[in-house]
Amino acid sequence: MTSKKVIELFYDVVSPYSWLGFEVMCRYRTVWNVEVKLRPAFLGGVMHGSDNRPPGVVPNKFMYMTKDLHRLAKYYDVPLRPPSDPFEAMFKKGSLSAMRFVAAVQEREKDGDRQVEHVSRELWRRIWNEDKDITEPASLSEAAKKAGLSDSEIKEVLELSTSKEIKDKLKSATQYALDLGAFGFPMLVCHVDGKPEMFFGSDRFELIANCIEIRVYEQEVIVVPILLLASFLVTLVFILLLRFCPEKVDRMRPKASKSTTRRVLHGIDAPPGLNVLEHESIALDMPSSYSTFQPPNTYSSKALSVSTLSLPPNPPKQPFKPSFTPIVQPRELPRQRLPESFNLVTPLPAAFSLHSDSSVSLYRARMENRNVVLRVLNDSAGATERHSFLGFASFLAQLGPHPFLPELLGVVSLRAPLVTVMEEMENRDLLSFLWRCRQEHVDPPCEMTERRMYTMATQVASALEFLHGKDLLHGNIRARSVLVSKGFTAKLWGLHGVYTRKNQGATWKEDLSMKKWQAPEVLTKRPVSQSSDVWSFGVLLYEMASLGEAPFAEISVNELLQFHQRGKSLKKPTNCSNSLYSIIKGCCHWKDQDRPSLAEVSRKLLSGEKSASDKVLKASGTVNIEQYLQEAGYGEANSYTVF
């Protein structure tokens, strides 16, 4: 196993360009798999020792720096704002006491630079964002406290920072930088084959990558020609089939829908073939009790009685009849005693999804004076699909009850058609619910308040924490995976991927439509963890606050990873409070170890719920489905360049 390559970063918190270089290297070290060693030093000593002049004292350089820093801060998403009097902050007050303080933190922290990193960042924030002092002990203590140091640690560091040991340590670091050729900061030194290579400035990262043999663009150079060649070959094969085997081409074409009318969902003109719950099952608002009964040995699955009221075109008029022999019951599958017939069976109205080839059909029905949803496996399903259908039902049963997870009411498993029965969630999926909340005078009434948003988010977090407690990762957290009851209870769904990964050994699904919700480690196919679900939960909060806008709408899928690498965040929705936005940004940290735990997120949501208002959230206009699909990343090419 090869050791990590080392990059030394020399910096001073009085230097704004050092802050930019510092943040970029902190982001790149994981992607490049390098060890970044922080070298706090005194910029004033370097300028004096190299006989250099500060660029700010040259009028034309000062004017350029003002514009340049603004551009770079926006590009790298670093909250850099010059102080009201830069000359006083940089030249009169200086940074000697601050850098001695940082050196003392480093001296005290023997294992790594984590505290040094946090303290340095907070000092930069004070001078280059909040226009505050960094020279007085009280100022240094406040920055250290924000960085996570305890009162006793701060007292110890303050005492240490005035010692001769630390003064000599800072002098030594400054002289070391001069010996390597420093004349300003930031200075980065790459160690290649035992030799130091020095780079100055916050805009030399491509050259640094080349120096340490990080291949930045090679993937794109290889992948693009291959994709073009593959596209040409597929087109050529299709043309040849069309010329010599037209009957095979006809079989390859999707069969036309029986209904040619476009379906309208909640006032939105939906393209054909969109159905939110296909491949997803259904969810319900159900007490947590589980009553299971053993069915009689001579169970009779009679006709599902169909009502002719309010049916869409081509309703099922014939009773369901067995078409294959009974299937062996999965182990521990609860089998409730179901009625011999379901009344008022009608196809479930369409909602949002891209799947049209599902082997499962959904129906709304009445069972024992309650509304239920039937997931009916089509007669054309093969043995593998039948096994998966019953296996998923068994998985739901073994998962156990939870107030904010769907509850399985029963299974018809001894005769065809195979049916799982769930209670109906009247408000369907959260995404279409949020879209309806954008409209006026809808039936049933639909209003989203800040308090309700916090409540529903807390419910989803509770369900997700329940899954994590069973060592299960969800992997598909988004508004489409949450279902809403008539009483506005939110329940987490989209569990089929959890089942396939746990019981069938499937890997994480490569799906373009999921990438806008996936954490960076998922996009780069690195190991995932519970923090990966936390990232997606943060994106879900954005969807709720924006009433169903696509996340990262302005960023294409093939630019998404670079966007994350620059440390950029989701834009703040109009309806989003500062406290909720801070939770969203916390969940969507680039480094998974910097994201909060679900328990911590839940505590913040509960706290926010107490102070939230009951004012109805508003958003302009309805959602255009085609535009949403484009902004959400459907159909885009998957081509990443990893910096």
Please characterize this protein's 3D structure:
- It catalyses: RX + glutathione = an S-substituted glutathione + a halide anion + H(+).
- The protein has 643 residues and is of the alpha+beta class.
- 41% of the residues lie in helices and 10% in strands.
- It folds into four domains: 5-214, Glutaredoxin; 219-252; 271-424, Phosphorylase Kinase, domain 1 (2-Layer Sandwich), CATH 3.30.200.20; 430-631, Transferase(Phosphotransferase) domain 1 (Transferase(Phosphotransferase), domain 1, Orthogonal Bundle).
- The strands form four sheets. Strands 7-8-9-11-10 form a five-stranded antiparallel beta sheet, with helices on one face. Strands 2-1-3-4 form a four-stranded mixed beta sheet, sandwiched between helices. Strands 5-6 form a two-stranded antiparallel sheet.
- The protein is elongated and about 90 Å long.
Kindly name the structural category.
alpha+beta
Distance between the termini: 22 Å
Q: What's the total count of β strands? A: 13
Helix tally? 22
Largest sheet: 5 strands, antiparallel
What top-tier CATH class of the largest domain fits best? Alpha Beta
**The CATH topology of the largest domain is what?**
Glutaredoxin
Blueprint (SSEs and pairs):
Elements: E1 5-11, H1 16-32, E2 34-40, H2 43-49, H3 59-76, H4 86-93, H5 96-108, H6 114-128, H7 137-146, H8 151-161, H9 164-179, E3 187-192, E4 195-200, H10 205-211, H11 218-244, H12 246-252, E5 264-265, E6 268-269, E7 343-347, E8 360-366, E9 371-377, H13 383-399, E10 408-412, E11 419-423, H14 430-437, H15 450-469, E12 482-484, E13 490-492, H16 496-503, H17 520-523, H18 530-545, H19 560-565, H20 578-587, H21 598-611, H22 625-631
Parallel strand pairs: 1-2
Antiparallel strand pairs: 1-3, 3-4, 5-6, 7-8, 8-9, 9-11, 10-11, 12-13
Helix pairs in contact: 1-3, 2-9, 5-6, 5-8, 5-9, 6-7, 7-8, 11-12, 15-18, 15-21, 18-20, 20-21
